[in-house]
Write a structure and sequence with these properties.
Layout lengths: L2 E9 L3 H9 L11 E9 L5 E10 L2 E11 L3 E8 L3 E13 L2 E12 L5 H28 L1
Antiparallel strand pairs: 1-7, 2-3, 3-4, 4-5, 5-6, 6-7
Pfam family, one: Polyketide_cyc2
InterPro entries: Polyketide_cyclase/dehydratase, START-like_dom_sf
Protein name: Cyclase
């Protein structure tokens, strides 16, 4: 059964600056602790990642995932191509400019291939949602403000 969640945060940066941080997927493990390694397998003509292999550790499980990214001017989404511990994953950021800030909404839906107790799954998902929003905000501020 699929589990989904969403979370919003406001970041003091432009959508372009935020998308640039997200596009630097090789650097994701430095600000998102569940990602242990990220390698771009394929890029679009503009240099943005298309297929990415990630080594992920969450809820006591380690997994290798291949994700395919789709980029827009105000959003980025990804979908699971392959993994050992997940049947499916769809996630993404939607960015809405708000003056000199940007409202960032992160949505994720996962379907585990292995059973996990509900409280373990909820705790892991909550941690992932916090990192995907608060961790991203900290990384964007670090990159933008130096």
């Amino acid at each position: 059964m699929a589990t989904r969640d969403s979370r919003e945060v406001v970041i003091e940066a432009t959508p372009e600056q935020i998308l640039d941080v997200i596009a630097d997927v090789e650097n994701t493990p430095s600000w998102s602790p569940q990602y242990q390694q990220a390698d771009v397998l394929e890029r679009y003509d503009n240099g943005q990642p298309k297929k990415v292999k990630m080594k992920v550790k969450a809820a006591g499980l380690t997994d290798e995932q291949v994700l395919e990214y789709t980029w827009g001017t105000d959003k980025v989404t990804w979908t699971l191509v392959s993994a050992g511990q997940l049947k499916a994953q769809d996630a993404g950021y939607t960015l809405t400019p708000d003056g000199d800030k940007t409202r960032v909404r992160f949505d994720m839906e996962i379907d585990l291939a292995v059973p996990l107790p509900g409280f373990v799954l909820k705790r892991a998902l909550k941690g992932g949602m916090e990192t995907a929003t608060d961790g991203l905000r900290k990384q964007v501020h670090k990159v933008v403000k130096g």
